[in-house]
Amino acid sequence: MQALVKKLKQLQVGDTAVRRNPLFYADAQRELERLERGGLNERRQWTRDRLGEVLWPASRSGYGKSVRGGRDIASWPLLTKARVRAAPKAFAVGSRLFTIKANTGGTSGAPLDLVRSLPSVVFEQVCIDRMMQKVGVDARSARCAVLRTESIKDPNDFKPPYWIHAGGGNRLVLSSTHLNAATIEHYARAIEEFAPECLLGYPTSLEALCFLLKRVERRVRIPAVLCSSEVLHPRVWHAARETLGCRLLDYYGQAERVAFAYATAQSEYRFLPGYAHVEFEPAGVEGDCRLYEVVGTPLWNRSMALIRYRTGDLIRVPAAWGEHELEELALGLRTFTGVLGRDSDILITPEGVKVTGISHFQRDVANIVRIQVIQESAAQVVILVLPMKEYSERDRDRLMHNAREKLPRSMHVEIRSVTALERTARGKTPFVIHRPPVKELLNNTRAHGNIA
């Protein structure tokens, strides 16, 4: 099944055969549209009913049996990423037929192996299509430019072009690694010639594009922009609308598919009803606000028992909110200002280019418990590795290869095997650490838009 899915995704029929499979797509689309029209009682009842359908098969998984989980969500403990990573097979539910393997991006430095059911893959596409519809774009036919972390070419090769065409000519996939002051005119012309209806990008890449265009007093018309995977700062909302003249939507999710939220206006995010059963775990007080960790249970993926999964992502809400307000928030009837964090996992090159997709360093590298990336200076990066006993030179070489695919030769990369990773004063182990000179450089970039 996995090999077939991989092949189909390379073809135009992949959208229909996998992500928009007609056996599931229309029904899922109707459910989502009905819930978005519904009020509190309808959303609450639908979520409860669906949750019961998910919990029963999950209780028969190895994990479900070990924790004695039942049809009541309260009978299940909070689930950590570490527990899933330690024994992923214990979370398997039902047959592996018509399931798709996946893994997390590893933003914590330790990827998870996941299994998704075909209906859950289709529903995810329904949600993305719905987001595009909210900014006036037909996802099935739209011409889209993509500015994320795709490796288009060697990061040291600065000869144009810095893009490729895909999706039968309907996609212009741009390299974020090569985007700088010397290349911005090439990007501007390529985008104008392609005339996309929509740009799909990471916030840091969108920020770089907008500030570079503004620096050379250039404007490029892109009607709609969808962002994900990182924090979208207020300055970028403003810059994108001013420079691109676009409608902008930012959405939040995870590879585990346990929560989904979106915003079409700055600081007005709402959870998407019907996607997951969302809970909030108290995480502290900040002034007149309370912090909560997002905890989610997917309602469409019955192939993996990720019940009450702790995302590690925090949100901030008014301290005066009680159970009723939090329930309305979880069901998408109230807004919140956004997910905290997630913008620190970037590196900056000596040329001033922000490099995203750092979690890809560990992709397909075996025998590693976790990595930590430390940027000592603009030109020096150290990757700390917590190795397994089987860790070998071959694994190290693969890790170095992945890093070198993302970073230019102007950055020296060193890999060190360690017995412990660095911790913050609060005892946290961040995936990416910036030393003071790098923090100063990043702060200067954020404050003044100084992107090379």
Keywords:
20 strands; GMP Synthetase, Chain A, domain 3; alpha/beta; 3 domains; 452 residues; 8-stranded mixed β-sheet; single chain; Rossmann fold; 32% helix; 4-stranded antiparallel β-sheet
Question: Beta fraction of the residues?
Answer: 15-25%
Integer average pLDDT: 90
**End-to-end gap:** 44 Å
Profile the largest sheet. Answer: 8 strands, mixed
Q: What's the total number of strands? A: 20
Judging from the principal axes of the Cα atoms, what is the shape?
globular
Q: Radius of gyration, Cα only, in angstroms?
A: 22 Å
Please indicate the count of domains. Answer: 3
Q: What oligomeric arrangement do these chains adopt?
A: single chain
Structural class determined from secondary elements: alpha/beta
Describe it.
With about 450 residues, this protein is an alpha/beta fold. It folds into three domains: about 1-130 and about 255-340, no CATH class; about 145-250, Rossmann fold (3-Layer(aba) Sandwich); about 345-450, GMP Synthetase, Chain A, domain 3 (2-Layer Sandwich). The protein is about 30% helix and about 25% strand. It has an eight-stranded mixed beta sheet, with helices on both faces. Strands 11-12-13-14 form a four-stranded antiparallel beta sheet. Strand 18, helix 12 and strand 19 (about 410-415) form a beta-alpha-beta unit. The longest helix has 19 residues, at about 40-60. The protein is globular and about 60 Å long. The N and C termini lie far apart (about 45 Å). The model has no long low-confidence stretch (mean pLDDT about 90). This is Capsular polysaccharide biosynthesis protein CapK. It comes from Steroidobacter agaridevorans.
